[in-house]
Each structure stands twice: as C-alpha cells, then as structure tokens.
Write a structure and sequence with these properties.
5-stranded mixed barrel; alpha+beta; 3-stranded antiparallel sheet; single chain; elongated; OB fold (Dihydrolipoamide Acetyltransferase, E2P); de novo design (two linked rop proteins); about 20% strand; about 240 residues
Length: about 240
C-alpha cells in the first residue's frame, strides 16, 4: 500500500531510539499516522515541527498497518508563530484539537482546506483570532455538533438573537431568554457572520464554542480532557483584551 500527498503536521512523538511517529492531516486521507525513520534525529528536528506543511509518502504492507512515512518540507510555519506569543499558542491549539477531535483516516477535505488557510494567516495576528473562531465552529460541525444560529429555538424569530442554548446549540432571542438568560451562552453577532470583529466578541464566541468542545466532543471521547493548548490560547487572547 502506498500514497503520496501534502499535509499539515499535527503531532510528533518519539518512537524507539531514533524514530518518531507523526500524525499528518491531509486533504484526501484525513488524519493519518506513520513512522518516520530517523525522525527523532537532529536533521529532522527542524522539519518535524507541528504546523509544518509537508510532502509525504506513506507506505505499508497492509492498509491497516501503521506504516512509514518519508517526508519533504514544503514550508515551515514555525517562524511566523514564534514571532508572536499569541500566534504560537494558537498554532498549538489548532494542531492539538485536530489530533484530539478527528478520527483517524477519515476524509475531512473542507476542514483541511480551512485549516491550511487559517495557518497561513499566522503572520496576520490582527485577523487571526476571528479566523480561528470560525475554524472552531467548522471543527465542531465536522464532528457532528453544528451550531444552529439562524432562528430562535423558542419563538422562531430571526432578530434580536442574543444567546445559545448550552444543551441544543440553538440560538435563543433576548425576549425568549427572560429570567433564564444567565443560564445561556453568549451569542455575539460575529458568530452569525454579522458586523465587525472586536476582540471582546471573539472572546465571547470562544466561551460558547469551548462549552461544546467540553460538553459534547469530550463526552463522545469517553470524557477525555480537552487539550490544555486550547485553554492556553484562550488565556493568552484574554490578556490582549
């Protein structure tokens, strides 16, 4: 068995004395692991950095084997991330969430393309947090927890929507929320693609998406805790407010 493609390096862990097991997110093969011979060595270290764009060839005797990779760098994103502490935290959040959320070897072509565009924006910290928030919404939808924000779940109105139900992920209008408002999640306009993107609204949006990663995605994975990399990014972003 053999295939070749471009992908985003998501995770690296040492394997034996000199090899490494890497996870690569590709457009046609999804999240796919394999062994890189010599991957723990000094020569490969600068190449095997999470977020890097790689040209990979995967080979295995049988399809269900872990197989091995040969890799060639296409471009590194480390320099762009290292230049800004918030961007470095964001890069780590993206790669950690992909490894955490996605089942192995299932195709997620649209999410792959959105992830590639997001990581290519690392040199633009002024627009990156909003792009990241939209990416989290896409990731939730990809794993089966799409937020329904077009109309109020209670009354059906499409205006004055200010909250999200923490159980259903559906919008709730301010009028319908009433005395239950303090039990609902915030619905900033930017989650619905309306208006500009002030940092405070992005931060509120991250509270809402974060709730569903914890309450829905983690629950389907046996309660396995969410990667700390996301919390570190949200914390770093809160300090920018």
């Amino acid at each position: 068995m053999e295939w070749r493609g471009a992908g985003i390096l998501v995770a690296v862990r040492r394997h034996g004395e000199s090899s490494a097991i890497i996870e690569v997110f590709t457009e046609t093969h999804g999240l796919h692991a394999g062994v890189v011979r010599g991957g723990a060595g000094r020569r490969m270290g600068p190449i095997l950095q999470p977020g890097a764009q790689l040209d990979v060839v995967w080979r295995a005797r049988l399809e269900d084997h872990i197989g091995s990779y040969t890799v060639e760098p296409i471009r590194s994103r480390a320099a762009a991330a290292m230049a800004d502490r918030l961007m470095l935290a964001g890069l780590n959040a993206v790669t950690s969430l992909l490894s955490y959320c996605l089942p192995e070897r299932q195709t997620h072509a649209a999410l792959y393309r959105q992830t590639e565009k997001l990581l290519d924006l690392l040199e633009h910290p002024e627009v990156w947090p909003l792009a990241y928030l939209k990416w989290e919404m896409a990731l939730l939808a990809e794993v089966g927890f799409s937020l329904q924000l077009d109309a109020c779940a209670v009354s059906g109105v499409t205006v004055d929507l200010g909250f999200v139900s923490p159980k259903s992920g559906r919008a709730v209008s301010r009028a319908a929320a009433g005395e239950w408002a303090d039990r609902l999640l915030p619905l900033p306009d930017i989650l619905r693609g309306i208006g500009n993107a002030p940092d405070l609204e992005v931060f509120e949006g991250l509270k809402t998406t974060g709730h569903f990663f914890h309450s829905q995605v983690a629950a389907t994975l046996g309660g396995r805790p969410l990667p700390q990399a996301r919390a570190r990014f949200v914390d770093a972003f809160s300090r920018r407010l």
